[in-house]
Amino acid sequence: MGLLDDRVAVITGAAQGLGFAIAQAFVDAGARVVLGDLDGGRAEEAAARLGQDDHARGVACDVTVEDDVDRLLAAARSAYGQVDVMVNNAGVTRDMTMRKMSLDDFGFVIDVHLRGTWLGTRAAASMMREQGTGGSIINMSSISGKVGNPGQTNYSAAKAGIVGLTKAAAKEVGFAGIRVNALQPGIIETAMTQKLSEEVRASRLADVPLGRFGEPAEVAQVALFLASDMSSYLTGVTIEIAGGRNI
């Protein structure tokens, strides 16, 4: 028996990186998954890479567009009959100092992370309440939302906002058996973090007591814990996955 047997999960930003790693962990645990991504073709390719017959589907989704988010969840319910887990993972960066950052760059990052997470949380909670079976919503914050990073006033603000959103949502929907929790990864080896300069990478590594960057699979295993009944009495919490950085 897998931890997620007979569960259906929706994951945004799932064509690569943390989103794909979470999808892989969920499928390995017995779930059927719907991968949402801005690039629908890449989402379908990612679903095919999971290698499970009819256990994964890819759907185009712009998480900042309400109708897209609603269609993503509707596609999961149409394909598999229900939605038990929602992972709001889609994210972008537009790093630069405040002095150089445009209002558009600030707003774009806020919209994708914070607006996108709010839309996904609201839509998933509504569907889970209709089903009457409870569920688990997992929102992707970041250690940047705890401590802030220079050049990331947009990203850090969005990720901090996700923590507040998670706590408020948990209080609103707990009565329906819906749990809402957040993850705060530190430096994880993904395409996004590999774009950092060697100087920045070395500086951040120096702050990690475990002496290494994390792997996507390590984040995925914590997401699996929050998606499963192993965390049945956890809601409104934020779990850091950062190797001890910024403790």
Automatic annotation (TrEMBL):
* Listed InterPro entries: KR_dom (IPR057326), NAD(P)-bd_dom_sf (IPR036291), Sc_DH/Rdtase_CS (IPR020904), SDR_fam (IPR002347)
Q: Which SMART domains match?
A: PKS_KR
Q: Which GO molecular function annotation, any one, does this entry have?
A: oxidoreductase activity, acting on the CH-OH group of donors, NAD or NADP as acceptor
Taxonomy, superkingdom: Bacteria
Instruction: Return any one Pfam family short name.
Output: adh_short_C2
Keywords recorded for this protein, A-Z = Oxidoreductase, Plasmid
Q: Which GO terms describe its biological process?
A: fatty acid elongation
> Domain Ketoreductase spans what residues?
7-190
Q: NCBIfam families from the xrefs?
A: PRK05653.1-3 (NF004198), PRK07231.1 (NF005559), PRK12826.1-2 (NF009466)
Its family remark reads: Belongs to the short-chain dehydrogenases/reductases (SDR) family.
Q: What is this protein called?
A: 3-oxoacyl-ACP reductase
Taxonomy of the source species: Bacteria, Bacillati, Actinomycetota, Actinomycetes, Micrococcales
